[in-house]
Amino acid sequence: MRVQDTPAGILQQALTQIFEQSDESAEAALPGLPIQVPLNITASGAYTWDPQLPIAQPAGSQIKLEDAGPADAQDLILPFVSERLHLDIDGRYPLMVASGSIRRFLTEEINWIARLRPGSAPNQYQGAIWNKDGNLASFPYTNVDIVVQTSPFPSLRKATVTFSGGGAAKRVRAYQFNSAYFRPVEFEFDATPDAKPVQAIQTHAHPNRPASLPSESLSIQKVFQRAGFNVTTSPGASVVPLAGAGANGQWSDMEMHDAMQVYWSRFANKSQWALWTFFAAQHEQGSSLGGIMFDDIGPNHRQGTAIFTNSFITQAPAGDANPAAWVNRMVFWTACHEMGHAFNLAHSWQKALGTPWIPLANDPEARSFMNYPYNVAGGQTAFFNNFQFRFSDAELLFLRHAPHRYVQMGNAAWFDHHGFEHAAVSQEPTFKLEARVNRAKADFEFMEPIVLDLKLSNATQQPQIIDEKVLLTLEHMTVIIKKEGREARVFSPFARYFWEEKKQVLLPGQATYQSLFISAGQNGWDISEPGRYTIQMCLHLGKEDIVSPPLKLRVAPPRNYDEEYLAQDFFTEDVGRILRFDGSRVLREGVDTLRELAQRLPESRAALHGKVALASALVRDAKSLDMSHLPDGPVAQRDANATLTLQRADFGAGSKLFADALLGRPQLAAETLSHFDYHYYVDRYSDALAGQGLRREAGEATATLYQTLQSRKVIQPVLESIKAREREFKAGGD
User: MF terms per GO, please (predicted)?
Assistant: First the structure.
């Protein structure tokens, strides 16, 4: 007889299930036979109430379940009621919190949260409900009394909750244990051969660490298990071959975004809580970009993150005691940080603004995965000297107990009533922030994508030091879009970037510039319908918030039937993503829509934007993730056949689209694309021309850029840099 078939072996297998979270994670090995007692059995986890099944009353309980009637008449309709309890009282990082949700009629949801203290009886916990959300009239209760029945066997674990207070009769629910974790999540890790992925580290490998930090092998999976997630994943990072992907190992936004789309389209029927982490060597922006977080991929709102291991995150400080361990730790931290964003965790220093679940104070000194190591006093050395490789208690409260709808971004009803009144605005601001559209009137055609030119100026008489990518890092900024007659919304971009922090000096009156595509993001098309809109933003700079003046703009109604008809296909997520990421080789329906737009409405501004996106994808070869030959079956069996292939450029077609959009009507292009993006796209086009040996044509395109921006009174340093490029192209002409 096998050991696992003996009574002790059967008990051992049962214990394997209950120790999912009792101390470390499901990875923790159980003690060998014979089994030792007493057992460390935890009560934390998720419990559910099923109105169809009676649950035994906990031993010794004074509660008579049969005497406890429904809370209200709605509870009598049992098939349309479901309840969930999250109990957080022991195990790793216990918060002494209980929370719950009650769903009725598939749409109505009530959520509550209570802070707990031990009661007078064993396994009893009591506390006041301090946060409620939803239909509060049907849930007046103010206190909970919880009695837990523990057992080595999950099926015998129960929690009975008595709700009281608020002038209502007591309400009793007996919940059945469901899982030692609060939420399930699926992780997938893949990497290119030229990347150096890190999924686990030895916590004592680097000498700069807390004295109390346990020595262990810590994996990404274990980090999130300790946060309360039931993590499933393939055994290890699969290598996606680069053979056939061409010589250029750098990744563009379009290529990486397309890879995310291909990956999730292959697994469209998988569970919603899923995250793909893809390790690659380097982005085309170079070593200054360490990672990208792509949000809401596909119909099930999947998340994907790219980590670039040939970047600043693998550049150990000079003289470091163990550079290899420093690099591994930094790549590990970056992966956990970016993955934390997938659960809508804000940075530790930006929690006070936006759409907070529970009002939180900024904590720029937090030793959390969600804080930047170089942000704290003393820099990364001080950070890692006191970092326990965990999320903060406030973040754990969100991960374990936030209602599902708070995980979704976008709602900004608070702005309608309070604006930015809580922003830390100085009476004498250090900087001036402006959002501009560089046209006489802020009027836009129907379907015209809106790109803002952002300007941040030094408003003092002294030089000021800023992060050189401060306007590019939207984590530093809250952007509000309000349509007249509608609730305001927070703009939430399709992707977030983890940049190396580099400082620059702004002299008095000097400014830095950036563009912002604001029409579409995770919320869909925030600006689409005709009408009047107000846009306002707040830039968070340390202890000071810089609020821009409101920008009011108007979107015109459609001019004809063709515009109304095409709008149905234009205002889609795919088209929004193609415009944001400068093209796609995989979102074919969106590409077809932009082609049809260019054919039927060639003079429209929307068509000009579409031509730029189409051209960007055609003028260069592009890497593409090929998963067409993957077998069906478990996650662990499917990655070996994934490959990267090279899709060849169609330079002739792309060049024609670029020339028509950028050079045919340059003043119009500069106005609708924004000055910043017009400069960017002409540079990309001229580089593509030069790459084909067409340096004279590249010089002519650059000359058009110079003349256009000069007439639009762009600042002299920018014009001088354009003129220098023009001379360089013409000096090496045909």
Answer: metallopeptidase activity
Three-state DSSP class for 354?
coil
How many angstroms separate the CA atoms of 10 and 400, rounded? 31
Task: Give 15 or 169, the one with higher predicted confidence.
Answer: 169
Contacts of 660 (CB under 8 A, 6+ apart): 611
Q: Which helix (H) or strand (E) holds 207?
A: none
How far is 413 from 634, CA to CA, in rounded Å? 43
Residue where a domain stops, chosen among 162, 179, 196: 179
Angle at 454 between CA 449 and CA 458, to 5 degrees: 175
- Look at strands 183-191 and 238-239 and give their pairing: parallel
* Number of helices and strands in the chain (H, E): 17, 34
| Helix, coil or strand: residue 534 | strand
Residues 218 and 358 reside in one and the same domain: yes
Please check whether residues 280 and 212 belong to one and the same domain.
Answer: yes
H/E element, 658? helix 651-658
What CATH number has the domain bearing residue 218? 3.40.390
pLDDT in tens, 623-680: 888 877 665 555 445 555 678 888 899 999 999 999 999 999 999 999 999 999 999 9
Q: Alpha-carbon Rg of the chain, whole angstroms?
A: 28
Is the domain of 293 the same as that of 145? no
Domain assignment present for 593: no
Cβ-contact 83, 70 below 8 angstroms:
no
Q: Which position has the higher pLDDT, 678 or 540?
A: 678
Question: Secondary structure of the chain: what % helix, strand, coil (to 5)?
Answer: 30, 25, 45
**How many of the other CB atoms lie within 10 Å of CB of 266?**
15
- Torsion, CA 384, CA 388, CA 389, CA 392, rounded to 10: -110
Q: Final residue of a domain: which of 381, 407, 433?
A: 407
Are 221 and 336 within one domain? yes
Instruction: Determine the angle formed by the axes of helices 573-580 and 588-600, rounding to 10 degrees.
Output: 80
For residue 717, what are the domain limits? Answer: 670-734
Residue type, 620: R
198 lies in the same domain as 111: no
The number of distinct structural domains making up the chain is 5
145: its two tokens: 């009394």
- State the helix-helix crossing angle for 675-691 and 695-711, rounded to 10 degrees: 170
Report the C-alpha gap between 58 and 582 in whole angstroms.
60
Low-confidence winner among 50-59, 230-239, 299-308 (lowest mean pLDDT): 50-59
Query: In the numeric block, which tokens belong to residue 539?
Result: 């830039």
Query: Could you give the CA distance from residue 220 to residue 199 in angstroms, rounded to a whole number?
Result: 6
pTM for the model? 0.74
584: in domain? no
pLDDT tens-place string over residues 64-102: 444 344 444 444 444 457 899 999 999 999 999 999 999
Instruction: Return the bridge partners of 111, or none.
Output: 101, 133
Residue 620 resides in a domain? no
Q: Are 411 and 489 in contact (CB under 8 A)?
A: yes
Q: Do 90 and 110 fall within a single domain?
A: yes
Longest CA span, the chain: 93
Of 719, 714, 616, nearest to 662 by C-alpha is 616
Instruction: Assess contact for 704 and 723: CB atoms under 8 A.
Output: no
CA distance linking residue 380 with residue 313, whole number of Å = 12
In a domain, 161, yes or no: yes
Question: Do 119 and 219 lie in a common domain?
Answer: no
Give the chain's end-to-end CA distance (angstroms, integer). Answer: 83
Q: What is the CATH number of the domain that holds 514?
A: 2.60.40.2360
Nearest-CA neighbor of 586 among 608, 616, 617? Answer: 617
**Do 48 and 33 reside in the same domain of the chain?**
no
Structure-token pair, residue 153: 């066997």
